[in-house]
Amino acid sequence: MRISSRLSVLLLGLACALAAPVHAERIKDLASIQGVRENQLIGYGLVVGLDGSGDQTTQTPFTVQSVVSMLQGMGVSLPQGTNLQLKNVAAVVVTTSLPPFAQPGQTLDVTVSSMGNAKSLRGGTLLMTPLKGADGQIYGIAQGNVLVGGVGASAAGSKTQINHLSVGRISSGATVERAVPTTLGQDNVVRLELNEADFSTASRLVAAVNHNFGAGTAAALDGRVIQVRVPAGSDQRVSFLGALESIDVKPAQMSAKVILNARTGSVVMNQAVTLETCAVAHGNLSVVINTENAVSQPNPLSGGQTAAVQNSIIDIKKADGQVMMLKGGASLADVVKALNAIGATPQDLLAILQAMKASGALRAELEII
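That's the Flagellar P-ring protein sequence above. Prediction below.
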């Protein structure tokens, strides 16, 4: 299936999805509580026990230095001029995230990534590695057997497929040693931060919170941050925040936006995108969008009123004479589908949409990724 054909199917699905009404979402899905966040941890360590697939020490001297330092810390002194040939050791970087409210003794999953030229970490064991935060303090210790994915047998069982072997994971491989202090509920106030800044959504969220908990409970500080008064006791505060996160809010319609992927030819848009009258010529393609005025006449005795209606007409022609015409409330999705129907390439789509935006006919923000 060609990219343009796949794109037509994608846009058809989008058109159906965008036609559906906007449903209410929980505050938990729209916003986060300021200060309740993960903290990134990182550490440098050694993986030992590899089957000859470790770092080549002639090209990674830091691996040898790390082994020498580790041995000295254990009381082992090496003679001067000793040339270590380590094939079963690899220098690695260990990363993980410290979740909010984590306490000492809690275990975390860690990712172990080779930083040298080791061929594989499969079968290795990570030695005790301190995990530090951005402030340089140690918040956890990691150690354990590294599990490496990416190795599997084919359906017939006669072939093996080896993928990326320089990264592995250790489930529950780190233990939290220090908790991050939090100021949740300080001065009996918490702040909610919207995932996407929007004044209308912030206003609706404030109205919903005040409707459920009383006037004056919430107040918007700007288009992203909402201040909420909470109970003084920790138990009551937790119950209050749990109920707060479950409140349904109907978010405001987002601003019109079209996203183009120049590498794959994907075009994604939201329901707020509109078109104005324009004409575009691109290679052997021409696109003309006009607006015609019509009159909507109600049936006799229906009690309705006569109203003026504007319909869009899209006329797309190809040099070989092939014509595609769409009438009645045509949208950008209709334009893209019609272009695909007469064989326009993804690059044709990108060029035409860029031209529409430059001319002011595309009423939407255009983002190219």
